[in-house]
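[audit] Reproducing an earlier prediction to check determinism. Same input, same settings, fresh worker. If the tokens differ from the archived copy the diff job will pick it up downstream; this log only records the rerun itself.
[audit] input (146 residues):
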Amino acid sequence: MIAVRDSASLNRLYPKILPRLKRLRIVRKGHCLGWASILRTQMQNDRHFGNLCVGTIVDCLSRPDDADLVIASASKFLERSNVDLIVSNQLHQQWQPAFDNAGFLSARSNFVLATSPELTKLLDPVTQNITRTHINRGDGDGPIHL
């Protein structure tokens, strides 16, 4: 399961007018392999991050075989912009290895996923199928509070 991620939807979610938001298109040999929306935020006395400069991979998408390249590219871009820490919220089981391969550590999320009764039925058994859904920060609060 995945939310609509066509060009029109992405332009509404991640408009060019947001100055801190960068939209990366990952291309190899003239072919788009995927994309990522990222943020660089200099925190100020934040209760979680203090005064760190935090990079966030807000949203991303590619074919599973290209996930390593997309995450590595987004991470390198953020590293070159001198962030102290890079975070992301990802649920899909096929994206976890890409983040592991890029050096990310897993942690419990403080985000709650609430589904309608109809969606819960479609996901049954939820505990097995929920990790087969492509949900990340962009599907929740989006690029706010970062």
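[audit] rerun output stored. Observation attached for the diff report: Strands lie at 21-28, 31-42, 53-62, 85-88.
[audit] end
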